[in-house]
Amino acid sequence: MRKLSPILFSVSLFLAAGATVFAQTALSLADKQQITNNLDSLVQAVNVGDIQKISALISPNNQTLQSDIQERIRGGIGYQLNYSPFDKNVEIIGQDQVKIKAKFAASGVGWNVSGLSTYFVFEKQNNQWLITDTDFYKKLGTDYVFRILKWVLIFGSPIFLLLFVFWFWMLIDCAKREFDDKALWIILLIFLNLSAAILYFFIVKRKNITRKPLEFKLRCSSS
């Protein structure tokens, strides 16, 4: 009987170990349901400031995380969490330990932000999936949210100004230019704003479409 080469033997052990680990850490439907329920419960608890409920969702082995989340809870901000599709946002990082990637939105009086990223590490302890790590608590305070809004204003304001200037430029050009369908283009520019301005630039201005006013010539007959 042939002996397996050291390399083939090592590969076989690696595959066998990997299959064993995967089998031990694969999430069942019940596990997925419990994790999603805990995430939803966490957001609801944060929104209403339910400290007791928050504590029940976090591993008792991480008291620091509990206190950090509790200290950063502020009223007047509503949070929403999006981690769907679940299977594409879950990463198995160890036996009975998974990492969930998510996007969250925050809103208050007169403002809202969305698309912010966060993560949650869950560990199964006594048949309960509890949070052992997350950066969500770092983004609970108004300071973080308004810091994001500040950067949006810093980078967004110049872009908005340039787009407004471009739209106004096209509107003035349309008003001064003599061509067919002028009235229709003015209406489109007023109601469709930037999208109409882009279309006008390529369809009318860039092609330099114009129509000369009618000229009337008088013929004088010589006597």
Spans where pLDDT lies below 50 across 5 or more residues: 17-24
Strand content: 15-25%
Give the biggest beta sheet: 5 strands, antiparallel
CATH class of the largest domain: Alpha Beta
Q: Please tell me the overall pLDDT.
A: 80
The number of helical runs is 8
Whole-Å distance between the termini?
A: 128 Å
SSE arrangement, N to C: HHHHEHEEEEHHH
Question: What's the total number of strands?
Answer: 5
Structural class: alpha+beta
**CATH homologous superfamily identity of the largest domain:** NTF2-like, domain 1
Shape, please?
elongated
Q: Kindly give the count of domains.
A: 2
Nearest-angstrom radius of gyration? 31 Å
Estimate the helix proportion, in percent.
Answer: 40-55%
- Do you know the CATH architecture of the largest domain? Roll
According to CATH, what is the topology of the largest domain? Nuclear Transport Factor 2, Chain: A
How would you sum up this structure, described in words?
With 223 residues, the chain is of the alpha+beta class. It folds into two domains: 13-140, Nuclear Transport Factor 2, Chain: A, CATH 3.10.450; 149-205, no CATH class. The protein has eight helices and five strands; from the N terminus they run H-H-H-H-E-H-E-E-E-E-H-H-H. Strands 1, 2, 3, 4 and 5 form a five-stranded antiparallel β-sheet that branches. The chain is elongated and about 80 Å long. It starts with 5 loop residues before the first helix and ends in an 18-residue tail after the last helix. Residues 17-24 have low confidence and may be disordered.
